[in-house]
Amino acid sequence: MIVTCERVEIKITSEPIDQIKAGALVSDIYARDFPLKGHLGMLDWRLYGFFSHLLEDAKLTGRLRETYLIPSQNKTRTQYFLLAGLGSKTRLTEKKVSSVVPHVLKTLRRMKVQEFVLVPLGWQVLGFNRAFKLFMQELHKNEPLFPSFFFKKMIVYIPPEAKKSRTHVSKMLPFIQKRMSHV
After folding, report:
1. How many angstroms separate the CA atoms of 174 and 159, rounded?
2. Separation between Cα atoms, residue 64 and residue 49, nearest integer Å
3. What is the DSSP secondary-structure string of 55-88?
4. How do strand 9-13 and strand 2-4 relate by DSSP bridges?
5. What is the pairing mode between strands 67-71 and 22-29?
6. Alpha carbon of 55 to those of 85, 93, 158: distances in Å?
7. Is-contact 68 86, C-beta < 8 A?
8. Which of 38, 93, 112, 131 registers the highest number of CB atoms within 10 A of its CB?
9. Is residue 57 a contact partner of residue 113, using CB atoms and an 8 Å limit?
């Protein structure tokens, strides 16, 4: 499903995450959430356990507001992985997720990424729709700080685990169009 808004094209997909072509993939990582499962587990497998090795060596911790930029080493169609630490899953709140989004946007802007894949931050705890809406609200709120975003396309990835528990994506489309028309 593709939605074109004023300046940013939004594509919603559930195709295999390692097959999506983009400049960066934005996802969350939690403290003490090991072994990796779901989409991060798949990407870790594609990178021959690179994320797991970083976690074991405590170089990747998942602490709140830590961001990690990791090259894909040409193992996937995405050039970089931008992992945003959200802290402990049991203590995650919307306020904490909101505090991480500006760091993610700042990093994407510095990288001059034209298109990126977004796995909504905190979706496992907050729910997919709520996490995505929260990201879009923060994007809109931070727009005056970043008047010229470099990205032209945002690909929203729906993990297979989220498909079972989410409501239909079409309910989000008016919200997406309303928010993106201001950006």
Report:
1. 22
2. 23
3. HHTTS----TT-EEEEE-TTSSSEEEEEEEE---
4. antiparallel
5. unpaired
6. 12, 23, 25
7. no
8. 131
9. no
Q: To which H or E segment does residue 74 belong?
A: none
φ, ψ of residue 155 in degrees (nearest 5): -105, 115
- Angle CA 52–58–61, to nearest 5: 85
What region does 152 belong to: left with phi over 0, alpha with psi -120 to 50, or beta?
alpha
pTM of the model: 0.84
Cα diameter, the chain:
44
Question: What are the residue boundaries of the structural domains of the chain, listed by start?
Answer: 2-180
Per-residue pLDDT reduced to its tens digit, 29-52? 998 887 899 899 999 999 999 999
| Percent of the chain clearing pLDDT 90 (strictly above) | 55
Residues 67 and 85: beta-carbon distance below 8 Å: yes
**Beta bridge mates, 24:** 80, 116
In order, the DSSP letters of 19-42 are G--EEEEEEEE-TT--S--HHHHH
Which class would CATH give 2-180?
A: alpha beta
Tokens 């049991």 map to which residue?
Answer: 90
